[in-house]
Description:
- The chain is α+β, with helices and mostly antiparallel strands.
- The protein is built from three helices and four strands; from the N terminus they run H-E-E-H-H-E-E.
- It has a four-stranded mixed β-sheet with strand order 3-2-1-4.
- Strand 1 (about 25-35) and strand 2 form a beta hairpin.
- It starts with a helix and ends in a 7-residue tail after the last strand.
Amino acid sequence: MSDCATTDRVREILEALNDDLEEEEASIFAFLVEEDADFEGQVAHVVWSVKSRKTADNMALIDKYCEIASDKLAQTVQFTYCRFRDDDELVEVEPRYRRLGSGIIA
């Protein structure tokens, strides 16, 4: 799959996942797909927005959400990295990440 096709497919998967998680304590804010030599293929970096710092510190919830994203993306990328941020920390997301529902974060 080409880089653009992979990015488009990851976006589709993550948008559908966000719809499924509408009432949950976390949602996907942004993502990045890039080539990774260690995994010999493309990996996804997923940035989750959490409702509170308490959620971000709860390892059971972190594991749950990251596992869900990893499972959904397993056929598309080699590995999924997850980062969890509360609203105050979302401004720190790198500009090359793609925000769900829009283009590149500016």
